Amino acid sequence: MQTTHPDTIRARIESALPGARVEVSTFQGADHFQALVEAPQFAGKSLLEQHRLVYAAVDDLIGGAVHALALKTRVPVGDAG
Amino acid sequence: MIEPSTPSTLEAWTEQIKRDVSEHPVFIFAKGEKNAAMCGFSHRVMEVFNRMGVDFHVRNIFADPNIRPALCAYTDWPTTPQVFVGGKFIGGCDIVTEMYQNGELKTLLEQTQPGGGA
Questions:
Q1: Fewer CB within 10 Å of terminal CB in chain A, N or C?
Q2: Contacts of A59 in chain B (CB under 8 A)
């Protein structure tokens, strides 16, 4: 079975969204991930658009090593969108 | 010959998905049947609408192997469940939960179903 480390997902998101604060952890086993992402790129974007930006960074992993990726996205405080 | 009620190809499912979401104010593509979810996230989105007293329709993505790929291509969204309100894709479990908690979902439903969604 394929596995992915939370750090792999965190690195992918950080590289797609430079300057983002990213926390990734697992729950319900090694293939369920949850991520908290605060990124300046989210400013002015809807939740749907914010989640799309994060999914795009890990698209090829979803359905494989990543069964689920629960997301919380936020604009950093001080970067009001 | 493909009957409208039993699509099989990706193209036929894409057309069925468009009909599903345009014919029902709240439509959920889920893992499992209505109120019998086979996945925690699908269960959670159904619970949100149940708690709000808002009726919804569900299509089980496991009913045919072409539903999920047709749906994900249509919405450009990689995960399920996927929730549509007023024919518009609003997101998955995380977004629906957050919109429920911050009141945006109630507002959207009131705009979609005048007089309903109480």
A1: N
A2: 78
- Whole-prediction pTM value? 0.87
Domain boundaries, chain A: 6-74
Question: CATH number of the domain at A6-74, please?
Answer: 3.30.300.90
- CB proximity B23 to A under 8 Å: no
Q: How many domains, in total, are found in chain B?
A: 1
DSSP sequence for chain A: -----HHHHHHHHHHHSTT-EEEEEE-SSTTEEEEEEE-GGGTT--HHHHHHHHHHHHGGGBTTTBSEEEEEEEPPTT---
- Give the least confident one: A27-31, A57-61, B66-70, B80-84: A27-31
In the predicted model, what is the mean pLDDT of chain A? 91
CATH number for B32: 3.40.30.10
Residue B1 lies in a domain: no
Q: Do A55 and B77 touch (CB under 8 A)?
A: yes
Please report, as a single letter, which amino acid is at residue B65.
P
Is A67 touching B (CB cutoff 8 A)? no
Mutate to test the interface with A, among B38, B94, B105 (most CBs of A within 10 A): B94
| Residue B71 belongs to domain spanning | 10-112
